[in-house]
């Protein structure tokens, strides 16, 4: 399935622990600062409200009677919107500053809408499509790295958490494995290597721009996805420092 192949190529992104905004009057209504770019609460609401409004309605089950069905939970949270907006801004800056080329085959929002459970015409899905493209560009234009044991386990722990965090979520990988077992399970998994490539790029940019977030959104994490036989799994990693990789291509 085209959507599955596209999501299977998504790199895993990590997020740095960022400074928090001071809770003063001058910061009222601000969700985050990335350099000279301000992400306001109004902007977060704009993306969030649009995503909720454009969530496909589920058909009532056979057991439905005349009683009103309970309201479905929104497919996206305000935290996820902030994660996406901050990560996008950092990635845009990385690509621009390093003069990286545009992605060869842009992601079509309609192809990832079902996986995100939001309408393909929503801004949230369109931003996600841009986010995937930026990840691809950074991965293809950054020297390859070798994962340290710490890096391997960061990725592994996030996968385990994602697979067991929600009822009915597919278990991505067996929990409780040693680093040797994880390396054997991962093999030559490109997604883990790509995770570090993008994570260290975004981390360096966050530090350079002195990125700060509102305490209620702290810690910010970059949204991630990886394709599995059960379908794409969406999850987050904390930011990883450059110390979890070894450059093998210089």
Description of the molecule:
It is a single chain. The two termini are 37 Å apart. The strands form 3 sheets. The protein has a 4-stranded mixed beta sheet with strand order 2-6-3-4. Strands 1-8-7 form a 3-stranded mixed beta sheet. It has a two-stranded antiparallel ribbon with strand order 5-9. The chain has one domain. α2 crosses α3, α3 packs parallel to α5 and α3 (78-97) packs across α8. Mean pLDDT is 79; it is low at 1-16 and 22-26. β7 (222-226) and β8 form a beta hairpin. By secondary structure, the chain is α/β, with parallel strands linked by helices. It is 44% helix and 13% strand. The chain has helices spanning 2-8, 41-53, 78-97, 109-116, 123-140, 149-164, 179-186, 190-208; strands spanning 14-15, 19-20, 30-34, 37-40, 145-147, 212-213, 222-226, 233-238, 245-247. The protein is built from 8 helices and 9 strands. Residues 60-70 have a biased composition (Low complexity). This is Lipoprotein. Residues 54-76 are annotated as: Disordered.
Distance between the termini: 37 Å
* Main sheet overview: 4 strands, mixed
Q: Could you tell me the number of beta strands?
A: 9
Overall 3D geometry? Answer: globular
State the secondary-structure class: alpha/beta
* Low-pLDDT sequence parts: 1-16, 22-26
